[in-house]
Design brief:
heterodimer; A: ABC transporter involved in vitamin B12 uptake, BtuC; 74% helix; globular; B: two-stranded antiparallel sheet
Chain lengths: 325, 300
């Protein structure tokens, strides 16, 4: 697909792919940068995967990314007197909770009132982007800066970088750990069993006495929680501050990743690494071969299209019937 | 009074793409194939309206192109969901992402620009003055002097209503939406009906995009639809997929959009806060109709 597009627009596809993979995996720093690019995608992919697994189409992780990023930055530049070993977990926790709550509310609407979660979460994405932009443009405005961004977080609130000069930091390790924990929860814990049952067969879940609305709400909270952590990873580990409009749509790539991985947490981890290669290689590809990096977005869309074919069974097909009336 | 006419005039202007997109989503909902790709189709319409319009130096050809290009995208969506039995939501989302990526890609490859393409040589679609109404003090200022697509958007509501409830094709569409297998047994060409409904909607989605690109402005920007397709979808839920009620929903959301634009001028309120308003209103409205539905359900 990508090769066809490049050839159609007069580019050398082989050369572009060579540059793409070379610049994503060619050296230690290149690999670190690829892991860096994968980090928010792992979180976003996990957030999408757990919701989809329960049959809830949460498109609101993007909003949680913004809310989580701002909250973590706020903790980071407000409580500057706290020691790092306390401040960093506090900032991450705050991001996880606020990010989780951001998706929890549309989750409640979905679970209790059957309000279509696709429309509500997309609307709330716009609200999150605008609201955080308001925050750094007005109450938390830094005088003398042209761009809308918050103050820098305290030095001890920064996430340690693992392979300088790359910005790759411990949030990558947290993301990997999150994938493993989530895999365990989905497979072995009661909530995992419940969310799988609700996703596969909500009627059976209800008849067998499962608290279906509660499961949906919990799943939406966890889904948003991962979004919050994705945002915190960027704010505390890469930019050291909140920047308005910083996300290039991590959550939407996350949706492609979750679908590609068929909602398996470990599969999501692997697929996110693959998309990390594409993301980190594409900027270099653009510079050296003038193939625009937006090509990657088209590739993502292609992946989702074919995932749509896979998913013509069961869990998603059914949900449309009831909810749109 | 001045402010009121301003807001009402603005409501009709910003409702235009909502009405067109709303009718497109409504048709898809009537055949039980909710078109989540609407946002991408509008974007495709906006893009082709500006690009073709500027290239051929004729805004009307741009308008035509917006319909054709959006229908082409619809065809991809329809192929996946009708013939390949792909999941509706996932395919719709894929098309939205595809449109965003492909158009951004083409902007760079063709015009060497990122984000915004403004040809500068293109005229807007003409404004229309309605002869008699124009002279009436209040009504003239509200209803006359809109872009041509605003009037088209009103006609689209009438058209959709007539199509669905006064033609055999419309009856077939509703039958297919109600019970596909029964419709098939009754000899209705289900596949053809589904394609027709989606493609008519595609043309209207293209016009909705054209309104943003060559009706309001003469440029294309990557995020110019800004969720309007989904707002239109919310209006369809609000109106239970009935043309009149859906149009009312579009006008309601348009009113809040016009209000927030008004609130940004000369009030000193940070622009981001009013900008949030239409999105919050949509969530609030969906919640309200859900509460009503729930109360009705339990009282029986």
């Amino acid at each position: 697909m990508g090769a066809i597009m490049m050839t159609l627009s007069g580019k050398n596809a082989m050369e572009a792919y060579r540059v793409l993979f070379g610049s994503a995996l060619g050296s230690k720093t290149a690999i670190a940068n690829t892991l860096l690019a994968s980090t928010p995608l792992i979180f976003a992919g996990l957030g999408a995967a757990i919701a989809f697994r329960a049959g809830v189409f949460n498109v609101g992780v993007e909003g949680s990314i913004y809310i989580g990023a701002f909250t973590s930055a706020w903790v980071g530049f407000t409580f500057v007197n706290l020691p790092g070993y306390f401040l960093v977990p506090l900032a991450l926790l705050a991001a996880a909770i606020t990010g989780g709550l951001w998706c929890y509310f549309p989750g409640v609407l979905k679970a209790r009132l059957d309000v279509d979660e696709i429309v509500s979460t997309i609307m709330l994405n716009y609200v999150a982007v605008l609201f955080t932009s308001y925050l750094v443009n007005y109450p938390f405005r830094l005088p003398g800066l042209a761009n809308a961004m918050s103050a820098e977080v305290a030095p001890q609130a920064r996430l340690a970088r693992l392979s300088p000069p790359s910005q790759m930091n411990i949030s990558f390790l947290i993301a990997v750990a999150a994938a493993i924990i989530l895999a365990f929860v989905v497979k072995h814990m009661r909530l995992g069993f419940e969310l799988r049952t609700v996703g596969d067969n909500p009627l059976f879940a209800r008849w067998s006495g499962m608290p279906v609305p509660k499961v949906i709400e919990s799943v939406m909270f966890i889904s948003g929680l991962f979004g919050g952590l994705a945002g915190a990873g960027q704010a505390l580990g890469v930019n050291y501050r909140f920047i308005a409009g910083f996300s290039p749509g991590y959550a939407f790539t996350g949706i492609a990743i979750a679908l590609l991985a068929r909602n398996s947490p470990i599969g999501t981890l692997i697929a996110a690494l693959l998309f990390g290669i594409l993301r980190s290689g594409s900027s270099t590809m653009e510079i050296f071969t003038d193939v625009p990096r937006d090509l990657i977005t088209v590739l993502e869309a292609t992946v989702i299209f074919f995932a749509a074919l896979e998913f013509s069974f069961g869990w998603l097909k059914r949900r449309r019937r009831g909810s749109a009336h | 009074m001045e402010a009121l006419t301003n807001v009402l005039f603005g409501t009709l202007r910003v409702s235009t793409p909502l009405l067109l997109a709303g009718m497109a989503v409504l048709l898809s909902q009537q055949i039980n194939m909710l078109n989540i790709a609407i946002e991408g189709l509008m974007l495709a319409g906006a893009f082709s309206a500006v690009v073709v319009g500027a290239f051929l130096g004729n805004v009307w050809l741009g308008l035509l192109a917006s319909m054709l290009f959006a229908m082409l995208f619809t065809l991809i969506f329809a192929l996946f969901v009708i013939d390949l039995k792909a999941n509706l939501i996932v395919a719709g989302l894929a098309l939205n992402i595809l449109a965003g990526g492909l158009l951004a890609y083409l902007l760079v490859v063709w015009f060497n620009t990122r984000g915004v393409y403004s040809p500068g040589t293109l005229d807007k679609l003409p404004l229309i003055t309605i002869p008699i109404i124009d002279q009436i003090p209040f009504l003239g200022a509200v209803f006359s002097g809109h872009g041509v697509l605003t009037y088209v958007s009103w006609l689209s509501v009438i058209f959709t209503s007539l199509l669905l409830y006064r033609t055999p094709l419309g009856t077939h569409m509703r039958a297919v939406g109600e019970h596909k297998e029964a419709a098939e047994t009754a000899g209705i060409p289900v596949r053809r009906v589904q394609y027709t409904a989606l493609l008519i909607g595609g043309a209207m989605a293209g016009l909705a995009g054209a309104q943003l690109a060559i009706g309001d402005l003469t440029l294309f920007s990557e995020n110019m639809t800004n969720g309007r397709g989904f707002i239109a979808m919310a209006a369809v839920f609000f109106g239970a997929a009935r043309p009149g009620l859906t149009a009312l929903g579009c006008l309601l959301f348009g009113l809040f959009d016009a209000l927030q634009i008004r609130l940004q001028i000369g009030t000193g309120i940070p622009p981001q806060l009013p900008q949030m308003l239409p999105y919050l209103i949509v969530v609030g409205t969906l919640t309200m109709i859900a509460v009503r539905r729930k109360l009705k359900g339990t009282s029986i």
